[in-house]
Design a protein that fits this description.
Pfam families: N6_N4_Mtase. The chain has 437 residues and is an alpha/beta fold. The chain contains 17 helices and eleven strands. The two termini are 19 Å apart. The protein binds S-adenosylmethionine.
Length: 437
C-alpha cells in the first residue's frame, strides 16, 4: 500500500492541465444545449466532459453507460444523444424527477396541446385547495401559495404521464423563484427584500423555454434514430447494492458529492415539501419530507452523520483524517464517513462493470480548516484497492465556473465573493479513469 500511495501522489503532483479538457470555448448555449438546463442543480458537470468521455471510451456500437450519482441527468442525456443505453441512480427524488424529464423527448404537438389544456384547467381551478406543511408558509407568502396551488391543480389534471412530469419539472424549478429564498444562496436563506414574481408568469416563461428545448431534443433524436434509446433513472442509495447484475455496464461516468459542501436535501427542500404535501400522488416524497432528518442523513458528505467504522483502503485518506483530528474532531468524523461511503460506491462500481469496462470519476480537491482534502488521489487509491487498474488521470482547468469559486477559509463551505476569509477553490478538477481488470 505504501509504494502504491507514493506512486499515486507523485503522479498527481506531476499532472499538467490538459487544454483539450478545459472546454474553454464552450459558451452557455453549448453547456445548456438540449434539455440540460430544464432545472437548476448544484455542481452539475458540463455536458462536454461527458460527451468526450463517451466518445473516447465508448466509441462505437450501443453500450451501457451508468452514473451512480446521476444528479440532474447530464450523463444520461448525453448517452442518449450518442445512442447509448443508460442507467442512473441518485438518492435525491428531485434528481430522479429532473432526469426522467430531461431524458424523455415528447412530441412537440402533444406538449402544445397540453399547454392549452393546462391554461383552461388553470382558469377553472378553485381558489383554496391544499393543506400545506407549515414550512411552506415560512417560504412563501399567502398569495403566492394560492397561485401555486392553482398551477399545481391544473398540472395534475394533465392525463399524459410524461407531459404531466414535464410540467411538474418546470413547477419544481419555479418554486425557488417564487419563494423568499435568497436566489444566489446555496443555503436556505430568507431574502427579506426579494420582490416576489408572478408565479404563473415565471412558470409559463420557464415552461416555454423547456418546450423550445424539447423541440430540438426531439427532432435530433428522431433524426438520429435514438428516440427510443432507453435511459432509466432510479432513486437509490449508491453506497448500498445497486439493482444491477454483476458485469453488465460498459462505462461509468460520474461526479460524486463533496464532503460538507452542498446539502442537496436542504437545497431541494421546497420541491420536497411541496410534493411531499401530496401523499396521494407523491407517497415516497411525503415520507421523506416528514422524516427529513433521517432522509438527509443518507446523502454522502452531509455533516449530520454518526461515526462509521471500517478501513478506508487508502493511506492518503487516513492521513487526511488524522490531520483533521488535530484541528477539528467532528469535521474529521464527517470526512472519515465520506471516505468510507465512497469506498463502498467504488466497490459497487467495480462489481457492475464488465471486465475491461471503464469508470471515469470526475472530482476536485478541496481544503477544510487548512487541511487539503485530496479527493482525487483518494479516489484513485480506493479504486485501485477495489481492483481497478489505472487508464488515465486527467487534470482539467475549470474556466467557466458553474458554482461559486469561493470557499470560506474557516469552515470550508462555499461563500460569497465579498467574504474577507474566502479562498479560491476548484480551479482544477481531475478525471480519474480506471478499468476493471
Ligand atoms: C455532484 S452531484 C452529481 C451531479 C451530476 N453529475 C449532474 O451533472 O447533475 C452528486 C450527486 O450525488 C447524490 N448523492 C449524494 N449521496 C448519495 C447516495 N448515498 N447515493 C446516491 N446519490 C447520492 C446527490 O444527490 C447529488 O445529486
Amino acid at each position: 500500500m505504501e509504494l502504491l500511495t507514493k506512486t499515486i501522489e507523485k503522479t498527481f503532483l506531476n499532472l499538467k492541465p490538459r487544454e483539450e479538457w478545459s472546454f474553454r470555448d464552450a459558451g452557455r448555449s453549448q453547456t445548456t444545449a438540449f434539455t440540460h438546463d430544464y432545472h437548476r442543480y448544484p455542481a452539475k458537470f458540463i455536458p462536454q466532459i461527458v460527451r468526450k468521455l463517451i466518445e473516447d471510451y465508448a466509441p462505437s456500437g450501443t453500450q451501457v453507460v451508468c452514473d451512480p450519482f446521476g444528479g440532474c441527468g447530464t450523463t444520461l442525456v448525453e448517452a442518449k444523444l450518442l445512442g447509448h443505453k443508460s442507467i442512473g441512480f441518485d438518492i435525491n427524488p428531485v434528481a430522479k424527477l429532473i432526469t426522467q424529464t430531461k431524458t424523455t423527448a415528447i412530441k412537440p404537438r402533444t406538449l402544445a396541446n397540453n399547454r392549452n389544456k393546462f391554461l383552461k384547467y388553470y382558469e377553472n381551478a378553485p381558489s383554496v385547495l391544499y393543506n400545506h406543511h407549515q414550512r411552506i408558509n415560512y417560504w412563501f407568502d399567502e398569495s403566492t401559495i394560492q397561485e401555486l396551488d392553482k398551477i399545481y391543480f391544473a398540472i395534475k389534471k394533465i392525463k399524459n404521464h410524461n407531459v404531466r412530469r414535464f410540467f411538474l419539472c418546470s413547477f419544481s424549478h419555479n418554486l425557488k423563484n417564487c419563494s423568499r429564498w435568497l436566489m444566489k444562496s446555496i443555503k436556505p436563506t430568507i431574502d427579506k427584500d426579494k420582490i416576489l414574481p408572478n408565479p404563473k408568469e415565471t412558470f409559463l416563461r420557464h415552461l416555454d423555454s423547456m418546450i423550445k428545448k424539447n423541440e430540438r431534443f426531439y427532432s435530433t433524436l428522431v433524426q438520429s434514430g435514438y428516440i427510443n434509446t432507453p435511459a432509466k433513472m432510479y432513486r437509490r442509495d449508491s453506497t448500498k447494492k445497486l439493482p444491477i447484475e454483476t458485469g453488465v455496464i460498459d462505462l461509468i461516468i460520474t461526479s460524486p458529492p463533496y464532503v460538507t459542501s452542498y446539502e442537496y436535501a436542504d437545497l431541494h427542500q421546497l420541491s420536497l415539501l411541496w410534493f411531499g404535501d401530496d401523499p396521494k400522488h407523491f407517497k415516497k416524497w411525503h415520507h421523506f419530507s416528514n422524516g427529513f432528518i433521517d432522509f438527509r442523513r443518507n446523502f454522502i458528505g452531509t455533516s449530520s452523520k454518526e461515526k462509521k467504522s471500517g478501513d478506508f483502503n487508502s493511506a492518503i485518506a487516513k492521513q487526511i483524517v488524522d490531520d483533521l483530528i488535530q484541528v477539528e474532531r467532528p469535521l474529521a468524523v464527517d470526512v472519515a464517513n465520506y471516505f468510507l461511503d465512497m469506498k463502498r460506491v467504488f466497490t459497487e462500481m467495480y462489481r457492475i462493470l464488465k471486465t475491461g469496462g471503464k469508470a471515469c470519476t470526475i472530482i476536485g480537491n478541496t481544503s477544510l480548516r487548512g487541511v487539503e482534502i485530496l479527493n482525487a488521489q483518494v479516489a484513485a487509491e480506493q479504486m485501485q484497492a477495489a481492483g481497478f487498474r489505472k487508464v488515465d488521470f486527467i487534470k482539467r482547468e475549470i474556466p467557466n465556473k458553474m458554482i461559486t469559486p469561493w470557499r470560506d477559509l474557516e469552515s470550508g463551505k462555499f461563500t460569497e465573493k465579498n467574504n474577507p476569509s474566502k479562498i479560491r477553490a476548484y480551479e482544477y478538477e481531475y478525471v480519474v479513469v480506471m478499468e476493471k481488470t
